[in-house]
Amino acid sequence: MLRKDNLKLGIVLGIIAPVFGMALYYLWKFYPAATIADFFRLLGSQKTLITGIVSVSLLANAVLFTIYINTRRDDTAKGIFASTCVYAVGSLILKYFL
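RESULT FIELD:
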């Protein structure tokens, strides 16, 4: 399935990869000291954490995007890029307006 060149696959991968990036950030920075609930509470109260989380999360998408561009699966790469843009705009809205 991952060998297909499909826009929908790219969108799905672009949505899932940042979740893995956020999980890695949690494991790297907070794991033994804080539970996942504490992590999300802290995220809600300290908007400065959003920058670090978004950076690691979008790095996961950048890796996927590079892989799919280099293997010439452009439609899937377009979906990953579109998801990345939506994710980035959403995180900016979350950080500055909410």
